[in-house]
Q: What sequence folds into this?
């Protein structure tokens, strides 16, 4: 049964980490030091693709102050298949596969010495032809990154090496028949450039490897159990011999769901016998962490004159950097998810290219697909003179719809977001000259996963929730609210802490918008278990059966008059006497959380395009999204706004720019342009609550769906304002101006 | 790395001349410190000029303004007389970096950093600003646009430093303006820029003009042809069209991460046109 009446859930108390963060007391990845600590730096390949013929570190090792140097020789290729590419990415082996690929690392008494040591390492490269563009990488004569890589899922079976790692297909019905029934068909091709999550905090860690082969690692990550697992595997350690503590995190957005520098710091610490601190520069973050894919997509959609979709098809090609694993599969699954389709078919090509190995970026793969598909949807709606919202409502997925990726939807909120946006004042506001309005829908699966939570009742009646997921979007506040709601105590009486990997059972990474859902559910279950124990304790004191005690308003009470006439005992009273009634009181939940609820959103945006320069200004933005149940609405709004803000950057200016030499030309925030505050309007939000039956309060994840629609919504708005369809992201001023001039719309 | 903070320009020049290895001048440090932190080989000598009294103030001189080389942009922004006389120059300098950077960054530093995209330089060139050079010999004055000779390179000789920048007295009915194009609204670097300085007669006809383009060549481009397109006009639409075309024709940008050649060429004309209209209105011209 889903709880619907709340005392605390749905309120907006102060965030528990706020004071630490505004006073500077919060400790991020680079804020920790240790006695005798060494400073590490990484030598990186200046080439996009090169055979590493030899590495001579002897001159670096002789430099006074250098305590350890590591190269590929210090990392054994792991037996575990899931770690092989990670190992190759962490330290290049036979070949450097992208500009920035790590080749060696040094630990020294100071950064100055370490810097000098890097210069003394001699690497002999044989430069090879490279490819960075996704379409070029798929061409028959493209330089091959991995000898022996055959396309998985190719039909007939692949006989030649290829940069296409895998082909994924989804869909149902018969698109050929569907297109035959269509009155209007639009086919278009789209491209998007790679973007970076743009988190403010660079990767940073402090590794301390002891002589007893036990190690501690402090790092900035979205999942310290993942770090433990990967590092232990790469260093040949047992997981319990490595304790990982997660620092406060200055943004991740999916980019901190893997390891880059942590195994290197551990290897250096093991070799040097001293603590080693390793902090990436911004340049390194751009060149050698995990940005998202660039893509090339063809979309074809057919409709009847009345606006019913008869068939929908998309071919998506994502390059995911130097190793397989681009999120093209998710693009192919999500793109058509907002629609109730009889005939749908998507094909996704996972392509490797000479770029850094991609990492997750907020709803990985989905925004790129939505950009292409929602652009064609918009064009079709305009073509038959139908309001784009009405068009979407007519074709919207509902409860019972067989989704484009297979499962049948339960209760979902897409229709609610569309109806709400239709009647919102934003939809009715007039537009000025050179302005346009765009809308788009977006979908994300959301996730549950393995989760452990302990909830400890303190002897004075205060409560600590111990969880194992770094707080990346306000989860500590949400856990405090849910625990306080269950226990019937004030929010301020609960403190939530993030435990290290030795102090709590396994937890999956903070990803898939899973934490408020899965950790929240575990917190509720742990609280309910603690309540059951407290009821037992009261029963013991009253000498009545435990079943005769209920928990209400933070007190144990007799279930009714026939249970006895006892004065209710508060949580604090029960906690205070716990020593004599059976000992400390805690609740636990250890489970794999199933039942994550999908989330849909509709975004609406107004833009103005300067016809003389092609510059796009975002004037107004409104997000409509289903949250299932908003535990802390201010944080939910923050997630909605954050996704939209990142989408604005992605749509308008952010892009990885590679030169002819295959080197990244803009590894810094000056020329990799994320929006600054003055680039954004206040982003309005409308929270809809269509409860998820899989959660006790109806929670759905909200963190990722919000970045799915913006690329398309903004492209639709810019296309209207510019009078020409924009099909290549980002819609930077040179690109928009060129499109307008070619279309005869730009001012001469 | 040796650090010196001399009290006079003469002493600074002497230190620079006597430096054995490389020597750098530290004013606001908003370029130098960033370069050092991003791995630049540290210079053997750093000469801090912020303790030189003669270089730390804004003085009125012969109806114009002499701005010391160590004066931060924020101080220029707060000088009402200067802002009234040379709004384009003050606005251009005010665009350098962020509010925090403004408290340190100097116009002379912007000039001597010799970036083709420097914001203050086109405005200074359009204004006819004169840089005063201190050195081992006699002080000498040269036009501001002659300082930078290419990206990161200046015409200053060993032992020389810019002591001040002089903005001359303006004739009545004069106005200047500077505009840059950036893809964002703040915290960015010009993809193209334009400074326009003009003087009108009593009827609103342009009698004198100086036009400078930034970020569309290895150094600032002072275009006499573009200026000529304004002189004798009231900046009517047809005149402005010719002017924008002349500016685009004068631009010699390259394709790079900040935009295509075509884009920068076009936008240089757009910005110059818009800046000319602002300068015209500031000079008292009626659009």
A:
């Amino acid at each position: 049964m889903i709880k619907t009446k709340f005392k605390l859930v749905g309120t907006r108390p102060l965030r528990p980490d706020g004071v630490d963060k505004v006073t500077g007391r919060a400790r991020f990845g680079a804020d920790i030091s240790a006695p005798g600590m060494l400073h590490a730096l990484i030598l990186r390949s200046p080439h996009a693709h090169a055979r590493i013929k030899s590495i001579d570190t002897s001159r670096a090792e002789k430099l006074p102050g250098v305590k350890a140097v590591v190269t590929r020789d210090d990392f054994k290729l792991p037996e575990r298949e899931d770690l092989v590419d990670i190992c190759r990415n962490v330290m290049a082996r036979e070949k450097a596969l992208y500009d920035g690929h790590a080749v060696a690392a040094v630990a020294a008494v100071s950064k100055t010495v370490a810097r000098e040591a890097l210069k003394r390492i001699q690497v002999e490269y044989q430069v090879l032809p490279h490819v960075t563009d996704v379409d070029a990488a798929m061409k028959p004569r493209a330089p091959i990154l991995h000898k022996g890589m055959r396309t998985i899922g190719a039909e007939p079976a692949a006989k030649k090496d290829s940069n296409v790692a895998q082909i994924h297909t989804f869909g149902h019905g018969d698109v050929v028949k569907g297109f035959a029934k269509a009155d209007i068909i639009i086919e278009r091709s789209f491209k998007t450039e790679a973007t970076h999550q743009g988190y403010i905090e660079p990767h940073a860690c402090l590794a301390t490897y002891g002589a007893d082969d036990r190690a501690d690692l402090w790092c900035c990550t979205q999942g310290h159990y993942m770090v433990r697992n990967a590092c232990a595997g790469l260093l040949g350690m047992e997981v319990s011999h490595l304790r990982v503590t997660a620092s406060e995190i200055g943004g991740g957005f999916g980019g901190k769901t893997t390891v880059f520098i942590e195994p290197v710091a551990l290897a250096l610490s093991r070799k040097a016998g001293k603590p080693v601190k390793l902090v990436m520069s911004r340049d390194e973050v751009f060149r050698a962490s995990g940005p998202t894919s660039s893509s090339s997509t063809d979309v074809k959609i057919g409709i009847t004159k009345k606006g019913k979709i008869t068939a929908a098809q998309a071919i998506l090609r994502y390059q995911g950097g130097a190793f397989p694993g681009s999120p093209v599969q998710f693009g192919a699954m999500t793109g058509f998810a907002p629609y109730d389709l009889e005939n749908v078919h998507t094909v996704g090509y996972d392509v490797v290219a000479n770029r850094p190995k991609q990492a997750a970026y907020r709803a990985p793969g989905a925004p790129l697909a939505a950009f292409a598909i929602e652009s064609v949807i918009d064009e079709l709606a305009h073509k038959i003179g139908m309001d784009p919202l009405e068009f979407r409502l007519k074709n919207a997925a509902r409860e019972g719809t067989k989704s484009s990726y297979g499962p049948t939807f339960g209760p979902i909120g897409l229709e609610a977001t569309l109806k709400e946006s239709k009647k919102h004042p934003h939809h009715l506001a007039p537009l000025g000259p050179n302005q346009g309005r765009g809308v788009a829908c977006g979908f994300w699966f959301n996730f549950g996963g393995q989760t452990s939570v302990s909830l400890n009742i303190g002897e004075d009646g205060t409560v600590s929730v111990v969880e194992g997921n770094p707080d990346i979007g306000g989860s500590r506040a949400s856990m405090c609210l849910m625990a306080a709601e269950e226990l019937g105590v004030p929010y301020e009486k609960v403190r939530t802490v993030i435990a290290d990997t030795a102090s709590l059972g396994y937890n999956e990474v903070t990803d898939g918008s899973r934490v408020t859902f899965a950790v929240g559910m575990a917190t509720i279950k742990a609280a309910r278990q603690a309540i059951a124990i407290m009821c037992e304790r009261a029963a013991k004191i009253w000498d009545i059966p435990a079943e005769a005690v209920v928990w209400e308003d933070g007190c144990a009470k007799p279930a009714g008059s026939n249970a006895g006439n006892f004065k209710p005992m508060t949580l604090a009273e029960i906690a205070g006497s716990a020593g004599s009634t059976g000992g400390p009181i805690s609740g636990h939940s250890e489970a794999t959380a199933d039942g994550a609820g999908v989330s849909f959103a509709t975004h609406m945006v107004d833009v103005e395009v300067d016809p003389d320069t092609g510059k796009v200004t975002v004037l107004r933005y409104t997000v409509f999204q289903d949250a299932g149940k908003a535990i802390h609405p201010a944080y939910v709004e923050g997630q909605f706004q954050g996704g939209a803000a990142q989408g604005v950057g992605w749509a308008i200016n952010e892009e990885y720019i590679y030169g002819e030499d295959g080197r990244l030309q803009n590894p810094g925030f000056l020329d990799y342009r994320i929006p600054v505050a003055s680039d954004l309007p206040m982003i309005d939000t409308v929270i809809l609550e269509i409860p998820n039956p899989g959660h006790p309060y109806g929670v759905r994840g909200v963190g990722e769906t919000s970045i799915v629609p913006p690329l398309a919504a903004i492209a639709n708005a810019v296309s209207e304002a510019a009078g020409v369809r924009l099909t290549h992201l980002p819609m930077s001023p040179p690109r928009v101006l060129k499109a307008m001039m070619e279309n005869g719309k730009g001012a001469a | 790395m040796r650090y010196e903070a001399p009290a006079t320009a003469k002493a600074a020049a002497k230190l620079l001349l006597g430096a054995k290895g490389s020597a750098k001048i530290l004013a606001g440090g908003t370029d130098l410190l960033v370069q050092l932190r991003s791995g630049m080989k540290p210079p053997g000598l750093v000469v801090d000029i912020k303790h030189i009294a003669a270089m730390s103030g804004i003085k009125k001189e012969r109806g114009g303004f002499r701005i010391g080389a160590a004066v931060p942009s924020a101080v220029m922004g707060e000088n009402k007389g200067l802002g009234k006389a040379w709004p384009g120059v003050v606005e251009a300098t005010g665009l350098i970096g962020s509010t925090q950077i403004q408290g340190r960054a100097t116009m002379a530093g912007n000039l001597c950093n010799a970036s083709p995209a420097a914001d203050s330089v086109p405005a200074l060139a359009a204004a006819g600003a004169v840089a005063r050079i201190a050195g081992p010999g006699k002080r000498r004055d040269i036009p501001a646009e002659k300082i930078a000779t290419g990206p990161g390179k200046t015409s200053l000789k060993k032992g020389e430093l810019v002591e001040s920048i002089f903005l001359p007295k303006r004739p009545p009915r004069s106005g200047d303006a500077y505009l840059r194009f950036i893809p964002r609204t703040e915290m960015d670097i010009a993809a193209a820029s334009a400074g326009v300085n003009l003087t009108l007669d009593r009827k609103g006809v342009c009698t004198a003009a100086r036009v400078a383009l930034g970020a569309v060549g290895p150094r600032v481009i002072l275009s006499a042809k573009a200026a000529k397109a304004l002189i004798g006009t009231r900046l009517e639409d047809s005149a402005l069209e010719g002017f924008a075309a002349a500016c685009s024709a004068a631009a010699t940008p390259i394709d790079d991460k900040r935009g295509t050649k075509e884009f920068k060429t076009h936008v240089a004309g757009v910005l110059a046109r818009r800046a000319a209209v602002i300068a015209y209105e500031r000079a008292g011209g009626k659009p």
About this structure: The domain at 55-167 of chain B is CATH 3.30.465.10 (Uridine Diphospho-n-acetylenolpyruvylglucosamine Reductase; domain 3). Chain B touches chain A through 21 residues (CB under 8 Å).
